[in-house]
């Protein structure tokens, strides 16, 4: 996440769109706080620039020469982890029953194989060959 802030923001489109959406939706700025943007290629060493998505009321160029009262201070790292964790509950709710269903299916197949072997042992082989 820090790498994306420092190296990819405004250089590549996908990380930029993702970060802007995360910061606007979750009301956060940077990875740990808004000062993470100071070391990014986006700011070119200017400490008074953050993305417009960090602004409490986003407007064009509101992140330039910002007032600290007008931007989010909370970082996005823990918010991002919470979003991922919440989504994982849905994945687990689907995956666990699917795994149980597969295991039960394998047990049924093993039971059928075992019964077929037992039945094959009881059936006598014919003594003569008929053509």
TrEMBL record:
Q: How does it sit in the membrane?
A: Multi-pass membrane protein
Task: Give the record's keywords alphabetically.
Answer: Membrane, Transmembrane, Transmembrane helix
Q: Primary place of residence?
A: membrane
Localization, per the record, is:
Membrane
InterPro entries assigned to the protein according to its UniProt record, in alphabetical order: Tetraspanin/Peripherin (IPR018499), Tetraspanin_EC2_sf (IPR008952)
Question: Could you tell me which SUPFAM superfamilies the record lists for this protein?
Answer: Tetraspanin (SSF48652)
Give the domain of life: Eukaryota
List the Gene3D superfamilies hit by this protein, alphabetically.
Tetraspanin
Q: Spell out the coiled coil positions from the record.
A: none
**Which residues are listed as membrane-spanning?**
88-114
Any one GO cellular component localisation term in the record: membrane
Pfam families this protein is in?
A: Tetraspanin
Keyword Transmembrane helix recorded: yes
Descriptive protein name: Uncharacterized protein
